[in-house]
Amino acid sequence: MGPLPNILLVTIDQWRADSLGAFGNSLIQTPNLDKFAAEGTLFRAHHTQASPCAPSRACLLTGTYQHTNRVVFNGTPLDADLTNLALEARAGGYDPQLFGHTDTTIDPRTVNDADDPRLSTYEGPLPGFTVALELPEERESWYQWLKEKGHDISDREKFLKPREDVSIPEGKGQTWPPSTFSADETETAFVIEKVIEKLENLPEPWFLHVSLYRPHPPFHVPAPFNDMYDPQEVPDPLLKGDISHPFLNTLTQLRFLDIPDDPKEVQQVRATYYGMVTEVDNQIGRLLEAVSPVEDHTVVAITSDHGEMLGDHDLFSKMGFHDQAFHIPLIIRSPQINGPKGQVIEEFTENVDIMPTLLDLADLPIPEQCQGRSLKPFLEEGKASKWRDRTHWEFDYRIFANMIDLPLDKCHLVVERTENTKLVKFGGYPAIYFDLKNDPNEQNPLTEHPLMTEAIQNLNSWLPPFRKSELVNQLATPDGMITLSDPLSHNS
Known about the structure:
Blueprint: E1 6-12, H1 31-39, E2 41-47, H2 53-62, H3 66-69, H4 85-91, E3 97-100, E4 130-134, H5 140-148, H6 187-199, E5 207-212, H7 246-253, H8 263-291, E6 298-303, H9 323-326, E7 330-333, E8 343-350, H10 354-361, H11 376-381, E9 391-396, H12 401-404, E10 412-417, E11 421-426, E12 432-435, H13 452-462, E13 474-477, E14 480-483
Parallel strand pairs: 1-5, 1-6, 2-8, 3-4, 3-5
Antiparallel strand pairs: 2-7, 6-7, 9-10, 10-11, 11-12, 13-14
């Protein structure tokens, strides 16, 4: 076993796979990430295992699927019996440092005081991390940094929306105006600055998890990124298909954001999102430059927690089962491995693979808990033996049980996706099947198909029983920990 490498794990929040130049998007400008991909390995068919934020990060940071970790929504406690990437890295000799957020709710069984403030938030740090910079959704540390730069922060709301004193040119939409702060004052710039400051005196080997909030909504970005993309030139959203299935019908009614109905405004949001991605790429360039003096013995992995529907199927946010919410980028550079550079891997990879991969690259033991596999063979040889030919993800929607009149334990779905098919198996609805070869945009959900029975059997053989959990129906709220209850019509 040689010396431990430095490890840098970056998550870019709500980043769709197709919003990357190296992925084949000829419009979006991501020069720093593209260069990074050319120096490392791009995993083109990479998927997260759950959404929204807390469930997806629980899978990423424990190496387990949702049916095992049972984190089903923002605020579901993470079972303390599960180990995680930070704890394993710490046991292996690192002091893992967190910049940003992991959206972890503490296991209430480990807390003595029912009024402990950690029981009232979903934005706690993952056990095992030393919190170098905390940046939850309320962003107070960023506001104080802006104050140091001369901003009046008495009205914090103005920093969360486009400027209101700017006239919108013809052909542009409501998210076009720039933010009230400059391009070097974004939340991303703030986090990257703090990471760079830390690196100046950080002893090696180090382990950093840098969790960037953008391009997560709200949709706005400072100049010049706000005007970088013409709304008429960004790809049109995928049209809404057949929504007769009860889940699809419900999904269109659960509108989590102030979603525009005007097609022009949808196109502007898509253009603004592109600008937000390019802004993040700009800051990623600063981070990679800061790491360059030690890059020959530094593992860098850059991915996301989940995607963003961005108007596709007439949906925004990241709920449901569509690829756009779960297909995300992954790029890994491990210079100490003398493998091919700039390669693109087409096999299915998953966020549950990241924990075992990083531990493997540090020659640390991989816990039996991990349900993913190390990607090291791909980095070494561009291929791996007996690799998966399908990918899986889950979405639990028990938080909406009272709105859809289903019992809590029926409010979930599991997806099995192959190259040409997608099966969505529901707890409380009929399964649906997509023939992706003839219906690549998922416009025609089928409840009957000659191969559907076989697909259900394949999924059942992969999916073990859901892990029993006394935490799955508990939820951290600003008023403390609550327990979800079934709709009255289903109470026993």
